[in-house]
Amino acid sequence: MTLELYGHPFASFVWKPLIALYERGIPFTFKMIDADHPENQVRIAALSPTGQFPALIDGDKEITQSNAVIEYLDLFHGHGIPMIPDDPLRGGNQGEIQRQSG
């Protein structure tokens, strides 16, 4: 099953999971959240009651928030250098960068 990423391409917090998906060569379908796609707006409202995106759907797994999506991709999809460092010291620094970037 192909992954589905819900978001809007102008939202910087959607860029992070997009970069991770493209970097790892993971096939996915992008589901646009906008007025022209009301069915996707309904889906994101069900996934995130506050309406926040991105959201990643992988079969029966539903992951919201860009950092959680990246961590999930690191653990379960694609091959390559981890997007989240294993070293706690570097990971702490990475966490600060993630908090500043949304």
Describe this structure in words.
The chain is 47% helix and 18% strand. It has helices at 12-24, 38-47, 66-76, 88-101; strands at 3-7, 28-32, 55-58, 61-64. Strands 2-1-3-4 form a four-stranded mixed β-sheet, with helices on both faces. The protein starts with a strand and ends with a helix.
How are the elements arranged and paired?
Blueprint: E1 3-7, H1 12-24, E2 28-32, H2 38-47, E3 55-58, E4 61-64, H3 66-76, H4 88-101
Parallel strand pairs: 1-2
Antiparallel strand pairs: 1-3, 3-4
Helix pairs in contact: 1-3
Short description:
The chain is an alpha+beta fold. It is built from four helices and four strands.
Which key features would you list for this structure?
102 residues, alpha+beta, four-stranded mixed β-sheet, 4 helices, 47% helix, 18% strand
The helix count comes to 4
Overall average pLDDT:
86
Placed side by side, the strands forming the largest sheet appear as 2-1-3-4
Counting helices, strands and paired strands, the structural category is alpha+beta
* H and E order: EHEHEEHH
Helix proportion: 40-55%
Strand content: 15-25%
Shape: globular
For the sheet with most strands, the description reads:
4 strands, mixed
